Amino acid sequence: MLRISNKRLYSSASNLIKTPLYEAHIELGGKMVPYAGFEMPVLYKSQTHIESHNWVRSKVGLFDVSHMLQHKVTGTGARNLLQKITPIDLNTLPVNTSSLSVLLNENGGVIDDCIITKHGEDDYYMVTNAGCREKDVAFIKKELENFNDAKHETFESTLLAIQGPKAQEILQKFTNEDLSKIYFGQTKFINLSPISETIHLARSGYTGEDGFELSIPSSNAQESKQSLDFFKTLINEYPDVVKPIGLAARDSLRLEAGMCLYGHELTEEITPIEASLSWLIPKTRRESNNEFNGASKILGQLKDKSSFTHRRIGVSSKGPSPRDGNKIFSEDGSVEIGYITSGSPSPTLGGNVAQAYIDKKFKIGSNVKIEIRGKLRDGSIAKLPFVQSNLYKP
């Protein structure tokens, strides 16, 4: 898998980057919007946001996530580098298995969230967010100065997420690999008809539904055409099951599933503990080998819960949907107790769902007021996730 030429990715009319699937988005009537420097589909013609969302919950949605940045970290120092900049324990992660983690600054704040896959003791694959490309690379490059025996490089390819309860049924038609033997969090290099190159498959996703993420080589025109043809074939041959889905539904799906979005729930000022992601720091790294960035603050928060006042939690409401930045008050409206980080109407549940940082003194089930459009609206603190995930596990 090689780096794609920037010339091929950039539009002649603007500086927005086009993914290898751009042509299909236009043919399918995608409403294109600027997103993290890319031109991405937010919605497709003949689909409402609610229809797109519900389609993924019941059938199969295709998401072009080629804007995400893919990394290779290799060499005898690769593991030590990754365990310095994240709290993951790669000693206990099995080969061909992936895990969510976070890039940490020296104060324990989150530079970005990421998925790290272990392909070997000295061979790792990582995916980070599109909007953090430049700062992530700069951060890793700086940290790399202390690890002469590690090598880091980024590459571009078609990155396609196939999500929904019928994802395995559809994808199985294109491979002889028995997908039923690959569980959530596991990865494998497989052959996928009619693509000539081996592709990287991960049973993963960002919707709460079962599904896969495919990294398909697209380093030249021929490879790009193969990924484009595959995308179109999935839609054209199985129109009653498969539809392309845009950014709007991707956001509401992840919100219902209680998943974080960088720049909203996660920032460089917020630690994983405050973000209710304590599970990202395994027991082995709490007890030993804990010289990761920000370890002093993070481990201190784990031991002393009184050392921080707010934590990430859910909020449900009726009426106008809460949005990023809306203030949250106590039930009588007298005390400001937190703020919304992201919110949306919930197609699955009705009403609205949101994530927020709220004073820990206020428990799940507590009634609150949310300031929306200059008025205080009723809401309540809710447990995350709002919709239980349907992940494929043994």
UniProtKB/TrEMBL annotation:
Record-listed substrate binding positions: 213
EC numbers on record: 2.1.2.10
Any one Gene Ontology BP term: methylation
Keyword annotations from UniProtKB, A to Z: Aminotransferase, Methyltransferase, Mitochondrion, Transferase, Transit peptide
Annotated Aminomethyltransferase C-terminal domain residues: 318-387
Swiss-Prot/TrEMBL catalytic activity: N(6)-[(R)-S(8)-aminomethyldihydrolipoyl]-L-lysyl-[protein] + (6S)-5,6,7,8-tetrahydrofolate = N(6)-[(R)-dihydrolipoyl]-L-lysyl-[protein] + (6R)-5,10-methylene-5,6,7,8-tetrahydrofolate + NH4(+)
Family note: Belongs to the GcvT family.
Its job: The glycine cleavage system catalyzes the degradation of glycine.
Protein name per its UniProtKB record: Aminomethyltransferase
